[in-house]
Queue: 4 jobs
Job 1
Amino acid sequence: MATNRVNFTDWLPDQPGVIGVLTNAENVFPKQVGYGPIPQEEDYSEAASENLNSAVAGKTVAGAVRVFAGSSTKLFLMDSSDLSLDDISGTTYSATKNWKFTQFGNLVLAANGAQPVQAADLSTTTISFANVEASAPTAKYLTVIRDFVATANQPASNPNRVQWSGINDPTTWSSSAVTQADFQDIPDGGEIRGITGGEYGLVLLERSIVRMSYVGTPLVFQFDNIARNLGCYEGQSVIQWQGTTYWLSDDGFYSYNGQQIEPIGAEKVNRYFWATMEDSRLDEMSAAVDPFRNLVIWGYGSNDNTYRLLIYHWITKRWSYAETNVNRIADFSSPSFTLEALDTINANLDLIPVSLDSRLWLGGKMIFGGVRGAKLVSFGGSNKEATIETSDLETDGRFSMITLAKPVVDGGLASVGVASRNNLSETPVFSNQSQADAENRVGLRSLGRYHRLRVVPSGSWGTAIAVDIEIQPAGMR
């Protein structure tokens, strides 16, 4: 009997399962071939005095790394000697659900939309936050554009304002032709919901996208509207990596690489996102990058009362998703640790919650993590339980029987279940999972016109590639 290979292709929840795409790709991430495992969440820090909502890392010119976290009313610095989170707030801040961070030289700057921009000097012995300058704006968002710190959305009075510091001086904010500090109100497009930087600035408003280009005095920056009637739906969805900005608009997910805007979620995951997102939890959205796996990831509160991760692999432009128990996701770097510091954390190295093989202990390595309650977490544990489901398989619309399945999973095992039905109007119901035997075979006898296979990898697997099946035409009594 011939064996047919069913490759694990794209997961496209916006499309019907009969067109040859995966119908489920849970707790996995896309690869060039197949899918890899998403690791479990592990506690990385001790508990702060408040639940956290954000995290970031700063690196001094000399190379020392510091990890910061924000909560509703405080800012914290992680002590790498014992993983505690020390309160280094300049004051008691007005309650906020999100902090935004950026770095300029040795200064880490923070904005919450309620207080003037805060700054902490990484080069000092005692690190603490304070107003970066008396005339600094109160803004929701900030970034670095060329040699300027730029802020956006002053919620109390000018939600459509971009204001930038003096050139190469984040402590100067008063408008001046000499320092080139100034501001610009964008007259159309609504309020600003995000800003990203680099060689140019990208300002994301409710109903337009504006590019900021440095032109020198007297204008300093030129503002060009590059997309009208396309804007940003939620400011916490904005993330930038390697010169490309990603965000959520009214109709789904987009990217801009400096040359063109691309609708990366159209006819793929946009309808799925809107169908599973809980509107009342929109402000819980977060975005992060996993550089090790080439992923842009959005976290959001779903309508089944979970926190869900929507995962985009920018190399292959493929998608997947995961479930998590974190409150927000974040990308940050790890400080370096000595053996003496690890001994301070726990004298019994076997009881340290994060594996000693983790990138966390290397120092300065960018990692994918987040916050859960009052603690920082990293995604570096054992593999989450993954589920991959194929498209509806058929033999020219005739009745057929699947008799055997052999999962193709590199570095691990898998169990397999099948859901067979006679008509597409019926709801697929999967059989109990059966573990592959020593010869990697799962015996099945499932009759119908349409068949879906559910594959659940196990062990320390690396790539789930396909499932081989034996299927034969069958009569129906």
Job 2
Amino acid sequence: MTVDPIAFDLVACRRHFLDHANPADAPAMEKYMRHQFNFLGIKQPQRRALLKTFMQVHELPQPSALPTVLQQLWDWPEREFQYIGCDLLDRCPLTPELLPTVELLITTLSWWDTL
């Protein structure tokens, strides 16, 4: 049985951030966002540091896999994963093939923090 590297990276990413969740901070973060989203309680500086640590071990998604990765990050209920998707978009070149996915992200779970 072969392991899909995209699914493996997503599973590892989710596990990495869930392992660093701070449930004590989540309620204040949810309140700040008017209870529009669930949070793990990982504030931006820590989230970015965790992503940096994660990216030292795992490569960026291949351009052809990026839409799948972004859509999965958007499907997870915790807002930090949408922020991770935005951070990945900042690191990857925007190609015409990616535009339908970007449009989907803009129109799904959109709020001031991800636009």
Job 3
Amino acid sequence: MLKQEELMVNDGWEGIEFCYEQGWTDGLPVIPPTKELLDGFHKQAGWDPEEILLIEPVRGRNVSAEKVAINAIMAGCLPSYAPVIEAVLLAMSDPLYSLHAPVTSTGGAASLIFINGPIRKELDINCGVNLFGPGWRANATIGRAIRLIYLNCLNAKPGILDKSTQGWPGKFSICFGELEEKSPWNPYHVDLGYDPTESTVTIFASESPHNILNHHSNGAEGILLTAADAMSATGSFSNGQSLVVLAPEHVNYIAKDGWTKQQVKEFLYMNAKRTIADLKQTGKIGGEVKDGDEHTWAHRGVSPEDIVVLVGGGDAGGHSSFFPSWSRGRGNVMVTKPIRKRGGTR
């Protein structure tokens, strides 16, 4: 992104077109970042424009709060979203996330963001009906701001640094909250040791979701066998992590049977598997099929703890989702960071 400078335009449309001409958009129109909007965003966010909010160590890129604010404004974010954006960037800067690799890979991963804690309600983050789709400003614009930062600050433009073979629409924006109120279990951040009154953000380099469709089973085992089957698909099979978002209808049946979240994770791990023969025959792993390969199993992930289970979606419908991790192996892991409000944030 160019150094900040003022440009006089005749109207808002001319400003939008100027942003297109500079290559600052994700293909959709953006809000021109006027000085007035930028100054107001910094003030309400409590950011010093020169402070560094994102570090990408492989290419030595540091992204300042000023550049983050510009992209957040262009994405349509309110200043009240700043603490979430800041926490996402902190998570992305963590070496465990391996930011450079999924951004540049042919795999086409999106930086999936999910949010826990009270801030979901404060910012009206959708956790229910159509939670992966359109309709909520916070969901759409927080995720979009991160993508614009990739494009404009890390030069992750298609064909330049972003080498995605196909990609998926989550690369525009994929951000949602866990529907904690409908879960029979602790929310994800509480499992990690955070207090329920705290808010967190988790980032995950994710492939596109697989629908887990089961309208007829009214028991835990049938629903979870369906989920495990989706997780076993050879196209996305790896020893990486998994994100399973169970819809309330499915969760109600699972809870009625008395299953704990840990039992769900253990069951999915034990049943999300393929034989070594399968993986060799499909070319997922190298080598010729040998005696015993038909009876030797590989599991999705390396343990039940590699399966993260959330609750989310509308009350009606037997549709849950499985999000596979990026890469053929285990190139990156989920990272969770607390969301901290600064003094200026409202």
Job 4
Amino acid sequence: MPESTVELRLPPRSRQILTAVIESYIETGEPVGSQTLAALQGNRDGLSAATIRNVMAELSDQGLLEQPHTSAGRIPTARAFRYYAQCSLGGAPVLSGASKLRLEEDLGGVQSPHEFLQRSSRALAALSNGVGVAMRNSAEDDLLEHVHFQKLPNGQVLAVMVMASGVIRDRVLSLERDLSMIDLETAANYLNKNFRRRPLEQIRQELEHRLQNERSEYDRLAQSLRQISQTGVFHSPPAQPEVFMEGVANLVINETDRERLRQLLAALEEKQRLIALLNAYVNAETETVRVVVGLEDALPGMRNLVLVATPARVGGENIGALAVIGPTRMRYDNTISAVSYAARLFERLLQPQGETSRQN
């Protein structure tokens, strides 16, 4: 968030009127005039239309309001939305009990980070009326939970690996010589007993080491494991974060400009760009929810969109990110609270049972 916006200090009356303009614009999408604000604020606070008009002129000079047409009222600028978002970040959480319960029901019972992130993108989209986005960091360090080999015709073997994250990987292996089902079951039992909860690359290296040192003792087993290992099945896949996204229709439903709609869809569908966007604004050092107004600076197709994002952590480890992409006219306080609460649920539901007991 630009430093000038973060450090902006407004007098109480200016802050009050700017907030009223922003909230009226979020509600209606229409430019806000001094007469309209006088009707909303004047009776309550004793502010005349002339006073409000003067303050709005000052806010325009500060780059916080702009006038789309000479005779029209004023609308907030990106700088104003940044200021408003910063104020919302510092406020008390506003997520209703019903919304919290809905998140807990949508995300309850998850067994892995993969499952949580996949479901959270849909849950956040529903609560925010924006695009729910969840990213899981590179799976290169994912741990093996269980491996199973199934004999196929023509000397091929199906390897099914269940990872600790919940991801299931399968691969058809072509071996140099045919292995019996007993050989395959023996190899699978050995791997599951000795290498459960180990990274794939570490398994590959350890297998090579053991096969060299214990060839005589494990001669028959070594032949089976060597063939399986040499197929590359335990080579980690290229480091590639996973991205889950739901709710694109929430953004495009009101788009009437075809070219603008095309650019928006292209930007959202290119997941590499979303990964770069989340990595640019959310990392291991990020402590709280981050609000970024003006995504067109990073992705030209995302004009007038806002990112609300926070890290997804378990036991202090940064697993990925939870986010909502929405219009500048979003409900900032509600969206910020929803993303923050989802991150707390992530930590609470997925941390080891022992740690949960110690904290309680």
